[in-house]
Amino acid sequence: MPREAPAFRSGVVHNDYNTDGLNGKSDAVYDLVRGMLARGVPIHGVGFQAHLNTDFDVKGAQVQANLQRFRDLGLDVQLTEVDVQLRPARPEPGELARQAAVYRDLLRACLNVRCAGFITWGVTDFNSWRAGGKPLIFDDVYDPKLAFAALAQELAR
């Protein structure tokens, strides 16, 4: 069954890093945004910069629950600047599979709460600000990595 795309609203959006999961900083942003809404500030969305690594556990960090609580305020949510850095300079196949799993789990959480956007922080590893960690879904020569396939499969579900 095709998913219905959420409507995107223009307006004020808060976008910050290290707020993707449930933690002290995301709690503070939640309180800030909830207070803004209570005062009539026209904020329409929250972006969650996801500069992560392969050790990140999407379920353990409770990313979906975090996104959902902002959606429950009536806000659009987006995962922005998504990249998942590898640890070794020459990654083993298992490390690329772990990177793909983190990307997949992020996208699944985003789709489950009807995110307004899922945005990678670049296209190829070569041009990434974190190039040494090979964080993106295309390698240095634009060949798709396992992470690309994981995202495509998740979107096809």
From TrEMBL:
Catalytic reaction(s) noted: Endohydrolysis of (1->4)-beta-D-xylosidic linkages in xylans
EC numbers for this chain: 3.2.1.8
Keywords: Carbohydrate metabolism, Glycosidase, Hydrolase, Polysaccharide degradation, Signal, Xylan degradation
Top-rank lineage group of the source organism: Bacteria
Stretch forming the signal peptide: none
Ranges where the GH10 domain occurs: 1-154
Similarity comment: Belongs to the glycosyl hydrolase 10 (cellulase F) family.
PANTHER family from the UniProt entry: BETA-XYLANASE (PTHR31490:SF88), GLYCOSYL HYDROLASE (PTHR31490)
Major enzyme class: hydrolase
Biological source species: Deinococcus knuensis
Name of the protein: endo-1,4-beta-xylanase
Family annotation (InterPro entries): GH (IPR017853), GH10 (IPR044846), GH10_dom (IPR001000)
